[in-house]
Amino acid sequence: MVRITPVLIAALLAVTGWCSASAETIAVIGTGNVGGALGPRFSELGHDIIYGSRQPQRADVQALVAKTEGNATAMLPAEAAAAADIVVMATKWPDAEVALKSLGDLSGKIILDPNNAVRINAAGMREMDVQTSTAQMIQDWAPNARVVKAFNTLGAPTMADPSSAGGPVTIPIAGNDAGAKAVIASLVTGIGFEVVDMGDISAAHVIEGMLIIRGNAGTMGTPFNYYFRPVPQN
Ligand SMILES: NC(=O)c1ccc[n+]([C@@H]2O[C@H](COP(=O)([O-])OP(=O)(O)OC[C@H]3O[C@@H](n4cnc5c(N)ncnc54)[C@H](OP(=O)(O)O)[C@@H]3O)[C@@H](O)[C@H]2O)c1
């Protein structure tokens, strides 16, 4: 587990040639809770947001475009993905495979995966509904893309307003490509969260399990957000 500091992010971004201060084009596929939270936040960092919607002219999609800063627009999902270097897969998990496979060639693109695959068991509690992880499955469906797990362990209202958590919130990330993780880490920290790198894509299984226990704790009346206090370095 690696706590990613701003210095480390800058060093990794320099290696990849990506500059957190430059405007990138980010396709946000899905205009619901997560897409509607992350799109406007990422636009605050100066990035251009293209919402990928099945109905880009719908009134609620156009309202989301209007509340997003900069050169925001909405178009069909495949058009949005083709124009972007970063693709946020913010559809419901049961729709993700069809949605992803409709996006065309994703080779080299960074895919941000905030998904959770959740089923409710006989006791009314959440369980993971995939064997590996949504991130691993997305990586398998798009083997030449650079998938990064992030933003699945907190609620969309907190993404939209980190101050509503009443204190710092840590977002764990995982993925196979260090440069892609540095880019996503810069987005995470840029909008007000702490970030910890949990390792390669296999770690996404545990990160998705974190959402299960967080959700179940909420069901049992003890809701929390994740904050990892660093061990003091002597
Ligand atoms: N809600 C949360 O607080 C939260 C927090 C962390 C993670 N997550 C995870 O994030 C994912 C998204 O959750 P959400 O709450 O944002 O879902 P949501 O509000 O239902 O939004 C999903 C969006 O996906 C789009 N969509 C649906 N079917 C599609 C398809 N076949 N192709 C392309 N787009 C399609 C729709 O946008 P258009 O109609 O515009 O196409 C829809 O608004 C889920 O896996 C969820 O578990 C949710």
CATH architecture: 3-Layer(aba) Sandwich
Please mark out the parts with pLDDT under 50 across 5 or more consecutive residues, or reply none: none
CATH topology assignment: Rossmann fold
Tell me the structural class.
alpha/beta
Tell me which ligands are bound: NADP nicotinamide-adenine-dinucleotide phosphate
Number of domains: 1
For the terminal residues, how far apart are their CA atoms? 18 Å
Helix content: 25-40%
What's the average pLDDT? 94
Care to count the β-strands? 11
Query: Major sheet: order of its strands?
Result: 1-11-10-9-6-5-2-3-4
| Main sheet attributes: strand count, strand direction, barrel closure | 9 strands, mixed
CATH homologous superfamily classification: NAD(P)-binding Rossmann-like Domain
**SSE order, one letter for each helix or strand:** EHEHEHEHEHEEEHEHEHEH
Radius of gyration: 17 Å
Specify the overall morphology. Answer: globular
Q: What's the helix count? A: 9
What is the highest CATH level, the class? Answer: Alpha Beta
